[in-house]
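Q: I'm writing a short methods note and want an example of a predicted protein-small molecule complex. Could you take the sequence and the SMILES for fe (ii) ion and return the bound structure as tokens? Please keep the output block clean; save any remarks for afterwards.
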Amino acid sequence: MSKDNPFRFTGVECVRFAVEDLAGACRFAADWGLSYVPSVDPEVKLFRAVDGSEVQVVETDLSRIERTPIGGGSGLCEIVWGVEDQATLAALAEDLGRDRRVEIDKDGVLHSVDDLGINLGFRITQRKPVHFDVTRFNAPGQPSRINRRAPAYKVAKPREISHIAIGVDDASEAARFYIERLGFLVSDRYADRGLFMRCSPSGNHHHVFFMNARVPGTRFNHLAFKVRDIHEVIGGGQHLDSLGWKTFAGPGRHTISSACFWYFQTPFGGSWEYAADEDVVTEEWEAQDFAAIAHIFSEWTFGLEKSDGTLKGPISASKEQKL
Ligand SMILES: [Fe+2]
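A: Understood, no commentary inside the block.
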């Protein structure tokens, strides 16, 4: 069942957060380069990437289930997955309805829940890729940018949501629902402690990453956005840094997925990641187990030297000296 994308998934459409500091979260999303879009419900703050990928933010209210993030405090309320057509929504409703709640709201979004209690939505995709001039590089003997200056970015303008990462007690257990019920594929793994999964055979290397967390329970870890190239990762990151937002990790380059990254701490209960040049795969991709590699997190990194999350390195050190 899993090889042919039975539910015709397209990717992460929208991530809904509940946060304790709504004003701070909105300021961060705008500084990140997302566009604020007035929404019908004034209590829901809506931000979009260039292709229409969305982040929705509400204030945490533990007396209301739809405003209670998983893990408490600030964090994830719902992940909305995109699908190609109405027939898929009907098939999902029928399949998921066998053993869990399913509701279709007034906008036609199907709502359900995974086996860990993470709220899931499914809607016909509204994302539309927007064409832009792809950055050209002059390799030795093979130049492809002639008589043109290279692009420079003062701020980032994220194109689309790439993936979401969630800390769990047991990553392979968390992945089971997605593989067996939704037809997701494992793209790479770190033994059973971290699983990178994609929602369709061709496309992004991963759309969701489950990782065993140090603290018990299920919690939002990070949300990644694709930007155009490594220069936009750096330009966007420098902009965030200049505004006083704190680096979580980066800049650097991932071992798994090949992406150049820069993570920032956010008011969303986890970090956000600028990512460029991630692997794109097809059904011919062969998943690898990276368990034997000690430094799985990055090929190289400034700022984060230990995979236990301890910040050490040039960026954090220079910050500390300035303070
Ligand atoms: Fe990531």
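A: Remarks, as requested: Helices lie at 22-32, 86-96, 171-180, 230-242, 314-322. The first strand starts at residue 9 and ends at 19.
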